[in-house]
Amino acid sequence: MTSTGHDHRPQAAGGDARTAELAGRLEVVRSRIEAAAAAAGRSDVPQLIVVTKFHPAADVRRLAALGVGDFGENRDQEAASKTAELADLEVRWHFIGQLQSNKAKSVAKYAASVQSIDRPQLVDALSKAVAREQDSTGRSDLDCFVQVSLEDDAGAHRGGAAPADVELLAARIESAIGLRLAGLMAVAPLGADPEAAFNKLAAISEALRVAHPAAAGISAGMSQDLEAAVKFGATHLRIGSDILGSRPAVG
Ligand SMILES: *Cc1c(COP(=O)(O)O)cnc(C)c1O
């Protein structure tokens, strides 16, 4: 986002009904984030990433006009076509979904961060892809978040590496060309208390920062649990449905 110094009030951009709807929802979410930060006694406000998966490029354009500068997508095919269509926007794209190593080359073309790094082979594939992209376009280093699983039961799965494997992945990212170790990402386990989950994540982050002090990012918190995430130190929030409305069911 280029900062123009203009204020980004909802009424300032766009004229259609969808823009007004998005502006209203965005305002509510921003207020929730500010209230949660104040309640937690934080002087910083976490970074909002608006997750636009399943929603059209036109909505990204509306949100960008409303002052949103960071967007999240979880499938390469959808993200690649949206980012190509929106190449004129000065916004950052964050990849937050499960990623196959053979998609690293595509993701390296548009992503500012990959938040779902869960295995060594993916680190190697991203490093190679970003290094090639840097040679041809001079792109900046890719911010990398290790996705950590907060499940107690290793069987239940919302993705991510086991906490015991975080240090190994972090060290591999830190020594890889083209990659910058940014921190951790997690999704609260379904049906569990999000505060307990994000408290656990905060402890894993603290342990990580002993050896990697710059890896201070904590990407946690979605529409349903952003308050809990802010309370336990989230630096990045990934909010989809509370801003864009419900997504079409996945067939
Ligand atoms: C879809 C998604 C989100 C956004 O979830 P909402 O509940 O729609 O806010 C956040 N993080 C990840 C990893 C996602 O896949």
UniProtKB/TrEMBL annotation:
Keywords (A to Z) from UniProt: Pyridoxal phosphate
Q: Which CDD domains does UniProt cross-reference here?
A: PLPDE_III_YBL036c_like
What this protein needs as a cofactor is:
pyridoxal 5'-phosphate
Keyword Glycoprotein assigned: no
Write the protein's name. Answer: Pyridoxal phosphate homeostasis protein
Q: Which domain of life is it from?
A: Bacteria
Q: Does the keyword Methyltransferase apply?
A: no
UniProt GO MF annotations: pyridoxal phosphate binding
* Entry-linked Gene3D superfamilies: Alanine racemase
Family of the protein in this entry: Belongs to the pyridoxal phosphate-binding protein YggS/PROSC family.
Domain Alanine racemase N-terminal: from-to ranges: 29-248
Known function: Pyridoxal 5'-phosphate (PLP)-binding protein, which is involved in PLP homeostasis.
**Residues modified to N6-(pyridoxal phosphate)lysine:** K53
